[in-house]
Amino acid sequence: MSLRHYPSPDKDFLVRTTLPTSELSVRAVAAAVAIARAHGVRCTTPAVLTDRSNVLVHLRPAPVVARVATTTALVRPNARVWLAREIAVAQFLVARGAGVVPPSSEVPPGPHEADGFAVSFWRFVVHHPDHLPAAVEVGRSLAALHRVLRDFPDALPYLASPLDEVPRWLDALERAGALATSDLTLLRQVYERVAAVLRTPVGPVQALHGDAHTHNVLVTAEGLLWTDFEDTCCGPLAWDLACFARTAPWGAEAALASYGDAPSQEALQPYVEARFLQGTVWYAVLALRFPECQAQAKAALRRWHEHA
After folding, report:
1. Where are the beta strands (DSSP E) in 29-128?
2. Beta strand pairing status for 45-51 and 217-220?
3. Distance CA 90, CA 111 (A)
4. 182-237 pLDDT, tens per residue?
5. Is pTM, for the whole model, over 0.70?
6. Between vectors from CA 67 to CA 64 and to CA 71, what angle results, nearest 5°?
7. Region of poorest pLDDT, from 63-77, 124-138, 208-222
8. Which domains does the chain have, with CATH numbers?
9. How far apart are CA 161 and CA 158, in angstroms?
């Protein structure tokens, strides 16, 4: 099979890149390059865009980004299933003109498997990582996304990440001896309390982004584009809105006002608490693989104790 050739990267390339941070990351990049090459896509200078939950690598000069499950795969044995859901939801949204980063048209989006890694492929989109749009822009964009997602026809798991994964992550942290027994006990108690509330939906249940925070919306020449639907699930809008409001740089009140017809902060509180719990536990998981994340994980746990 002949390889397709692409122009060199534009000198105005705006997206920050970094080097792989571990042997696992190096292998992840190699797996993505090998799959792309098998489909006729030439990659001479792969550039890692992020390397935390997953490795995202721009297969330069091709307009393709590979998502390779790395840290997530350590605690998510069925990572390929999550990537398949993400692709299905993104394809549905693209077909209906929603503002999302589309799956790749250069390489079959997958998910693929190579060297034990689950891999999906996406269109490379130049964006402005330092440009923060106004709250009203992001809120309206999320509301528009939710309107389209109402019609997603396929079955999705109910609040899969906060309900199903948090206890699994806590078990992994216990096996690794990463948290004190008292911390594990407290986090599990809080999980049981918030999970009981989340299992009774507030409002209608529909397809959701699943991880709808502001770092998952890109500012591009085409407008705002949502990305990273890996945690897509079904549930009440309250979950996505809690993710959106929890760390919105303009503050929760401004974020919810920008969305429009949102539940009150009081109604969202159990979902905000569940998101807080999820983030605290995930930072501890990241620290298992990235020693440089230890301080961040400890700070998150400290904030949790202050909150509790």
Report:
1. 45-51, 54-60, 64-69, 112-114, 117-123
2. unpaired
3. 13
4. 999 999 999 999 999 999 887 889 999 999 999 899 999 889 999 999 999 999 99
5. yes
6. 160
7. 124-138
8. 23-123 (3.30.200.20), 135-307 (3.90.1200.10)
9. 9
